[in-house]
Amino acid sequence: MLTLKEIIQTLAHNGDEVYGAICTVKSITGMQCDCSPINGAADILDVRLVADESEEKFVLVPAVGSIVIVEFLTREAAYISMVSKVSEVLYKIGDVFYSATSEGFLLAKGDDTLKKILTKIIESQKQITVLYGNNPDYVKLTEAQTEVNNLLR
Q1: Which of 47, 74, 90, 153 could pair with 59 in a Cys bridge, judged by C-beta atoms 3.0 to 4.6 Å apart?
Q2: What separation in angstroms does the CA of 9 have from each of 6, 13, 21, 34, 39?
Q3: What is the pTM of this model?
């Protein structure tokens, strides 16, 4: 039985005109990456992850070592059109920024992050002392703080 890599290589060698290349991601620097075609052709350098270098963007950053499809705009310019494994999802519009990685989520607007806001709320609740009635549940607040730290970065 053929492996996925062998099937992709067979499809890549069908004699049709090449519009794109199936590659392995070698490295990522900023919003570009270097890729190695699985058919053994020369490496493709400075492949774009985004259409332009504007501040506002939505990007699926491929994982190093993963399979991608590299499409060519010209003989010298290429971009990633499909990814098999994502290492990060980035979204930026205006001063709103979202990032998701295996380390957690980051949601920010300007200098404010969701993690900072939730941490301030939890820490302020831990300071409350009630003279009559029930004090805050400090165990649950500590658990909530741990969960915020695990989820958000």
Answers
A1: 90
A2: 5, 6, 10, 19, 7
A3: 0.76
